[in-house]
Structures are given as structure tokens and as C-alpha cells.
Structure prediction request, 490 residues.
Amino acid sequence: MQPLQRKRQAFPLDMLAVNRASGEHLSRQLYHGLVAIIRNRTLAPGSELPSTRALAAELGLGRNTIVSAYDQLVTEGYLANRQGARPVIVDLPDGPREAPAEAPPVPLRSPSRRGEELLSQPCHHGTPGRFAFHPGMPDAASFPFGVWGRLVARRASHGETLFGTYEVTGHPALKQAIAGYLFSARGVGCRPEQIVITTGAQAAFDLLARLLLDPGDPVWMEEPGYYGAKAAFTVAGARIVPIPVDQERGWRLDAPDPAPRLIYVTPACQHPLGITMRMEERLRLLDIAETGNSWVIEDDFDGEYRFQGRPVPAIQSMDRSGRVIYVGTFAKLLFPALRLGFMVLPPELAERIANALSTTGQFAPLVLQAALADFITEGHMSRHLKRMRRIYAQRRQLFRFVVEERLGREMTLSPAEAGIQVVGYLRPGIDDIKVSHAAGRRAINVSPLSKYFQNTAPTQGLVLGYAACNAAQTIEGVDRLAMAIRETLS
Prediction:
């Protein structure tokens, strides 16, 4: 920056017009006008500005308005104050100039290759108010928000240790509550120290992908399979190797070559098909992981909602070598916007995970965690889950009846006995992408089955969530879906 030399130059008052009818404060209008004069070098560096009294008189403004604008320009480095003298314009280096209005905008640099990969991944978040038939959406209207609100308020009113970034792996009371719940409900044996609270299952997949994978590592993944998990692994640079899964033959677990670095499965309720992995397949999977020294991510998608028999034990309960990482979420049990999930890590990984969490910032608010711990330990969650199983069983039965009655010629529902969504297989000649678009125009929220296939020829169908709809909404929704399907055939 050059030394300041005082210069005399006619001041361009015509560039400082202010509009008293504008919603912008007069001092801010004056500030913007002075910035334009300085940045465009209408006045040369070193030029004096008028005194605050003189400029106030010329513009018909209060002196305090001028002082406020000048002070801001001094703070930002546009002007230099001098003791007992008027401020002068600082000699600033050449920077970006205002482009003429007619000039085309200069294109920004493209994101990185990893950024482009990240931006291109599929997603599906639905539309507010469109509950028919958003896949995996629970019935938030039946959630005991009165109880929940009291628990949050109680924790927020006297929770001095809950308002910082402490306990980044999770609130101790919640980890203890989850460990007890997992052992009784899913057969998962773990210590609270192995549990890490996350902001949902997707945050866990993203973190695990960065922790466990190098570019080019093979990842074994179900086909069709959950595209959210695949997106996390793909952005980490993994090479996806499909595990074929279907209703009749289940998981086709042929020994891979080379051995996978990581295997991702949804064995309790396969996403999106809703089938359950048989014991022989579970043992085969663990044998492959042992032989290849592979990590296994067990995504317990929708495992709590099973409508025949008891929920099946987790694969993690059969693991003897500490290679299975169990991932769960409260999105289906409670409500998705809670954004709380968890993972159960092998002890060696759990001991160091706080460093990774601190780097990524992927840790959840402690106030919500403490309230959730109370919700579990005071018995509210078990009562809620028991009630919702009964409600969802009734809604599932009605949904299947209405679909078979009104759409039986166009679509066949899968026989899956778990989960709060179901696959409807479309008859040949019906395009599921076109159907999903036509359904969206009728305020029906469905997900095309074909987008769950990434490496093999897709099956045409729809993934349909039924849990959030009461009887009237189900009937109306199926009628609208029927119109959407028939529109694509006309």
C-alpha cells in the first residue's frame, strides 16, 4: 500500500443520491455510494473526503448519519482517519471491479471431481404434506409429541453440560439406553463405549466410508440396494460390486475375487425388497468376511417392524471377530426429522472415533440425546413401538387389500413380512419412472424401483410406503396412483 498523500479533488456529490422512501437505512445508502466512488477510483487514492458537517449540509442529512458511514469505511479499510483532519481514501490494490450490466457473468470454477461425484448422487426427500406413499415414512401424527416436548423442556431447563460440544461420541445415558435396548430387541451384545451417536444412518455411512475405504477398494453391495449408502461409498472412491438379491433366491453370495474391503447388507429387512436374510446366508456372509478380512456394515433398516413372528437377531450378535459394524436409526421408530442414529463399532475403532467425529462435526445435539435417553428409559419408546406395530399391521392389511382390488391388473405387491414399505411390481410395458412423475403431479409420492439398480438390468416397480396414511388417505392415494399408472398407458 502506497503512503497517503493529501490531494484536493472536486467531490462527486451527484453520486451520493439517497432515497428516503427506501427501506434501506440512509447511512447504508451513503456507505454503498462512497464504496462505489472509492472502488471505481472516481476519487484518487489520498483524496480527502468532505468533513462530516459539510457533507451533512450538502445532502440534507443528519451528521450522525455521515459519521456512521465514515466509521464503517474506516473499519473496513477504505478510509484512513487523521488526527484533527478529514479522512482520506486509502490506496487499495486493484481488485475485482463491478462488471457492466450487459457483460456476461464470468463462469465459476467447477467443483472438484469428488465434488461433482457428490453433487450427482440420487436423493429422495419427498414433499411436505404428501404422505401417500412416501417410502419408509412413519406416522408422525401418532407420535406422543406431548411427552416428547416435556422431556426436551425438562432437559433444556437445567442442562448446563448439554449446551457445549462435549461427549462427541454420544450422551452417556443415551448410549447406555441403546445398549440395553439392542440386547433385548435385536440380540446385539456391546458395551456403551462401543456406541457412537450420529445424525442419522446416512451420516454413519459417510463417516464409515471415509474411515474404511481407499479409492478403488471393492465394496460388495446388494442389488437392488439402498442408493444412499452406495452414494457414500461411491464418493469415497470405492468400486461397487453387486450382490444380486431377489424375492425367490435371496442373497446370491458367491465368493468374490478379489475379496471385498467392505460388505454392506440390510439383512433384517432388505432395502428395498423387504425380505429377510436366511441363517445359511448369514453364516455364508460371515465366512466370506472372515476369509477376505473384510469389514461388514449391517444396516438394520426397518428391522423392528415385523408382522409375522419376532424380529430376527442381528448378524452382529453372531460376529466373533469384531468385523461387523451395526448401524441403526430412530427415523422409523420415532420421526425422521429427529436426525438421530447410531453405530456399534468394534472396540479398537471406537477408541479412536472421537478424533474423526471432531474433524467432520458429525455429532448430534446433546439436549436431544438426553431427552431421547429419558424417552427410552422411562418406557415411552417401548409403549410407542408396541402401539405402532398394531397400527401399521392394520394399515398394511388395508393397503394390500385396496391395491389388489383396484390395481391388481397393473401391479403385484411383494409378499414381504417386514418393514413399513412394500414393493409393487409393475406388469411388463409400464415404466416406473413415468409412473412416478405422473403420480407426483397428483400429489402422490412414490419411488421407482429401477433407481435402486445400479449395475444390472432394472426391474420395473414402485417402492410404496403405507404407514403414514390412514384409511381414507390410503383409498384416495391408491385411486390417484391408479390414474397415474393408466395415464402412462394411454
